[in-house]
């Protein structure tokens, strides 16, 4: 009897949900999608490797499809023209972020990653201008180059002792040091046993984020997840406090000598001071932006470096070719600088290919439809979450020849004619990644300098698995390498 009752309740919920979801105003058509179950929506199809599951679903349901993350109606776009239509032509309706509980906990809607409206626009403008000026600031870019050299030295011990090493944590330390130097005039040693307290806090924040979505999707679980939230808040507070101290120090220095610009935070504060409405920006906004940069600008770049090295190990010919090209560009020195970047087209193509084949932001960061949005023959209903299928686009055989093959030459072919919306590792439209140039410089200098100094191989001579896993980003599985000093 009980089972029958349960069955009837589920059937009723299902029918109500089905009709509610099918009904859009003005006879607009909802993008198709798989069976939407009560409570869990279509999550039953996304349990393992969501980027692969979504790619497969898009083969079946098309380049615009509707999924349900529990109750959250989600439209996934896997077509370059539709991406342009939605995120560029109708950017007034598609620029806001879809904000769940964890995002709000991180940014309090007072940062850049997870804020909307005029607040986001004003802070983003200042940050984008600061990054623009960073490019022309020789002194600051020199620090990134120095850090890349220290990264290369960190591999030395492994090469001389013959020990294998997992390059991931060293790459992570490199990207963290770059941000720490840009914001806090601080850095940490590459000795993985001696970690800076801020790195420990950041690591714990990242671990909490990896489980964040489940907690966000099922508010009913919130009483069980208090510990998770307390842990996240406690570690975020450590990052905020550290940022506040640095902001105070930077402000004091600039008050005494406004022209002494030594890092990104100096640029950011002086852009604020010189803006039309400096009173709009306060310390809370500043320290939340600092923690954004730590969160969004470290794992992303270091994971891409790990992917690039993995593919260069699996393709030793490409590794040799990239090294020879770097060596020639560096005039025979074992140290490459950003000023030589235009002399290394093949290595640059390898970086692009790594960003294509394993985009760490495989589904970008969610946006929300702030109004009904037209997308080809469909309508994306107001309030829906919208995802860009960055990974699916990169694996689309109608766009790329042999998409699963790491082939840097595809970027060098003179007839390369892909839509720029087919390759969107940094997202697209008004919220495109603000740190993309810094990321590309880090990858160039970080991987370029280690390649110039060591030959890398897998431990057993076999190719390393490029399957990866979907955590806070699309990351490589941990892998060890052996290396020989040149
Ligand atoms: C390979 C490295 C990186 C990748 C693949 C990447 C990817 C992305 C993606 C996909 C987005 C969302 C874009 C959208 O909504 O359309 C994003 C946003 C963002 N990224 Fe990156 N990113 C990388 C490195 C960095 C770095 C180094 C920084 C800064 C130090 C950074 C800072 C940001 C910020 C602040 C946003 C939010 C922009 C906004 O909401 O207006 N990222 N990134």
TrEMBL record:
The keyword Oxidoreductase applies. GO terms for molecular function: heme binding; iron ion binding; oxidoreductase activity, acting on paired donors, with incorporation or reduction of molecular oxygen, reduced flavin or flavoprotein as one donor, and incorporation of one atom of oxygen. Gene3D superfamilies: Cytochrome P450. Coiled coil: none annotated. It is a single-pass membrane protein. One of its GO terms (biological process) is organic acid metabolic process. Its cofactor is heme. Heme binds at residue 433. This is Cytochrome P450 family protein. It comes from Dictyostelium purpureum. The lineage of its organism: Eukaryota, Amoebozoa, Evosea, Eumycetozoa, Dictyostelia.
């Amino acid at each position: 009897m009980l089972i029958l009752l349960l069955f009837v309740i589920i059937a009723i919920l299902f029918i109500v949900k089905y009709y509610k979801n099918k009904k859009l105003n003005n006879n607009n058509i909802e993008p198709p999608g798989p069976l939407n179950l009560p409570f869990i929506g279509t999550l039953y199809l996304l349990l393992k490797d969501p980027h692969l599951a979504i790619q497969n679903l898009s083969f079946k349901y098309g380049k615009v499809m509707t999924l349900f993350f529990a109750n959250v109606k989600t439209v996934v776009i896997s077509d370059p023209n539709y991406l342009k239509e939605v995120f560029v032509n109708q950017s007034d309706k598609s620029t806001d972020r879809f904000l769940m509980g964890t995002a709000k906990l991180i940014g309090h809607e007072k940062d850049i990653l997870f804020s909307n409206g005029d607040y986001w626009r004003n802070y983003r403008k200042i940050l984008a201008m600061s990054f623009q000026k960073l490019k022309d600031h020789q002194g600051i870019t020199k620090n990134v180059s120095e850090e890349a050299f220290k990264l290369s030295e960190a591999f030395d011990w492994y090469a001389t002792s013959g020990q294998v090493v997992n390059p991931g944590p060293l790459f992570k330390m490199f990207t963290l040091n770059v941000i720490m130097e840009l914001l806090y005039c601080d850095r940490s040693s590459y000795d993985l046993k001696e970690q800076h307290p801020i790195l420990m806090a950041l690591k714990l924040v990242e671990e909490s984020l990896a489980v964040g979505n489940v907690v966000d999707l099922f508010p009913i679980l919130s009483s069980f997840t208090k510990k998770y939230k307390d842990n996240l808040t406690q570690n975020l507070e450590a990052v905020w406090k550290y940022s506040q101290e640095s902001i105070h120090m930077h402000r004091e220095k600039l008050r005494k000598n406004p022209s002494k610009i030594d890092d990104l935070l100096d640029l950011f504060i002086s852009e604020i001071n010189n803006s039309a409405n400096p009173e709009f920006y306060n310390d809370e906004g500043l320290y939340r932006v600092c923690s954004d940069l730590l969160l969004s600008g470290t794992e992303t770049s270091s994971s891409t470096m790990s992917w690039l090295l993995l593919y260069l190990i699996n393709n030793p010919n490409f590794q040799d070719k990239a090294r020879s090209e770097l060596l020639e560009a560096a005039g025979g020195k074992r140290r490459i600088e950003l000023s030589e970047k235009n002399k290394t087209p093949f290595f640059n193509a390898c970086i692009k290919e790594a960003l294509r084949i394993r985009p760490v932001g495989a589904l970008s960061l969610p946006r929300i439809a702030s109004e009904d949005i037209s997308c080809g023959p469909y309508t994306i209903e107001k309030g829906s979450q919208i995802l860009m299928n960055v990974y699916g686009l990169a694996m689309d055989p109608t766009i790329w020849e042999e998409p699963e093959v790491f082939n840097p030459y595809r970027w060098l072919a003179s007839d390369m004619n892909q839509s720029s919306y087919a390759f969107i590792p940094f997202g697209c439209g008004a919220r495109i990644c603000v740190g993309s140039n810094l990321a590309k410089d880090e990858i160039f200098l970080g991987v370029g300098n280690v390649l110039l100094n060591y030959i890398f191989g897998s431990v057993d001579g076999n190719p390393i698995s490029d399957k990866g896993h979907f955590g806070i980003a699309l990351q490589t599985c941990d892998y060890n390498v052996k290396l020989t000093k040149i």
